[in-house]
């Protein structure tokens, strides 16, 4: 089962409001927020999430039930030592009542997914300093991944020295390529096993914020830039990503959105090895797990 498209789009149109020590914040999906960035700086953290315990799976509960659930969430956050600001998620559709919510500072997105899932939420809003706010699923989320070829019969995929899919929830900045990613390998789509015979259902997108599909082609290093495959993705219902490889395979992911991997400046964070900073796996990790313009990460709770 996949989160209903209409429900996801309603979340994307919601305004996530909070009062942080007198500062009124209004957060929108897809937009950066300078006032929120200033609040993160003031608290010496780089990440945030927006949570509620109201109306699990968008099913309307009584006010008494919602208030009790919210009180339990607040108690859990306080016991864990998180700072937060109270507010309301205000839907664009006036038929829905605003939901009492919490802007939580310094929580990692993967931990926030687990927390939202425990309270029955379809999705949560998250972000990092200088980055646009994004939605991440907490339940009922899967990317359906298929590989086809116009002339080659279904079977093991050829033409790549390494070919893998990897659920990602963090990274090791001292490493690059797949060893630099934290998370979990997708066993059924890995080197020596990846096949075009049947779809692969990436059904852990409510536990991991991202999945990375990567193929390393054979040949001299100077030729690999145009032959390697890079598909870093997040879950988004009713969207799709499609790429054609140098040897004609069509890789298509349903319910997915592609993550951009901008280049890093020479010597980023003092790394002098250009292979390290040019690595697209590493560039992806910096894009999604570091604040914009960061030279080093502030420690996050979670």
Summarize the structure in words.
It is a single chain. This protein has six helices and 14 strands. By secondary structure, it is α+β, with helices and mostly antiparallel strands. It has two domains: 5-137, no CATH class; 143-289, no CATH class. The protein has a seven-stranded antiparallel beta sheet, with helices on both faces. The chain has a seven-stranded antiparallel beta sheet with strand order 10-9-12-13-14-8-11. The protein starts with a helix and ends in a 13-residue tail after the last helix.
Weakly predicted, low-confidence segments: 295-302
**Beta-sheet strand percentage?**
25-35%
Tally of domains:
2
Mean pLDDT: 93
List the strand order in the largest sheet. Answer: 2-1-4-5-3-6-7
CA-CA gap between termini: 28 Å
Q: Tally the helices.
A: 6
Shape: globular
Structural class: alpha+beta
In short:
Helices cover 20% and strands 32% of the residues.
Please render the helix and strand layout as text.
Layout: H1 5-12, E1 15-20, E2 23-28, H2 34-43, E3 47-51, H3 63-80, E4 84-90, E5 99-105, H4 109-118, E6 123-128, E7 134-137, E8 143-148, E9 162-171, E10 181-185, E11 200-202, E12 210-216, E13 229-244, E14 250-258, H5 274-278, H6 280-289
Antiparallel strand pairs: 1-2, 1-4, 3-5, 3-6, 4-5, 6-7, 8-11, 8-14, 9-10, 9-12, 12-13, 13-14
Summarize this structure as a short list of keywords or feature phrases.
302 residues; 2 domains; seven-stranded antiparallel β-sheet; 6 helices; 32% strand; disordered C terminus
């Amino acid at each position: 089962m996949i989160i209903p498209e209409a429900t996801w789009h309603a979340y994307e149109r919601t305004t996530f409001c909070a009062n942080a020590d007198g500062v009124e914040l209004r957060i929108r999906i897809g937009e950066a927020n300078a006032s929120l960035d200033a609040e993160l700086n003031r608290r010496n953290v780089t990440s945030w999430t927006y949570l509620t315990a109201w109306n699990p799976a968008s099913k309307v509960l009584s006010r008494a039930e919602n208030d009790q659930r919210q009180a339990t969430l607040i108690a859990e956050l306080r016991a864990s030592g998180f700072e937060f600001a109270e507010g309301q998620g205000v839907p664009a559709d006036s038929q829905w009542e605003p939901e009492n919510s919490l802007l939580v500072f310094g929580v990692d997105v993967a931990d926030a997914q687990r927390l939202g899932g425990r309270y029955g939420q379809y999705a949560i809003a998250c972000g990092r300093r200088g980055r646009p706010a994004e939605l991440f699923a907490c339940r009922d989320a899967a990317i359906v991944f298929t590989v086809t070829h116009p002339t080659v019969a279904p079977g093991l995929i050829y033409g790549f020295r390494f070919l893998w899919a990897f659920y990602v929830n963090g990274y090791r900045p001292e490493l690059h390529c797949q060893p630099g990613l934290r998370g979990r390998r997708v066993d059924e789509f890995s080197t020596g096993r990846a096949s075009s015979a049947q779809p692969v259902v990436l059904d852990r997108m409510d536990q991991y914020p991202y999945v990375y599909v990567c193929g390393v082609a054979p040949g001299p290093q100077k030729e690999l830039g145009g032959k390697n495959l890079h598909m870093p993705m997040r879950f988004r219902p009713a969207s799709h990503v499609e790429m054609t490889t140098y040897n004609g395979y069509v890789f298509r992911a349903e319910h997915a959105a592609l993550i951009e991997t901008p280049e890093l400046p020479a010597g980023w964070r003092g790394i002098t090895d250009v292979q390290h900073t040019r690595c697209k796996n590493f560039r992806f990790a910096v894009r999604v797990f570091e604040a914009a313009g960061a030279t080093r990460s502030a420690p996050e709770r979670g």
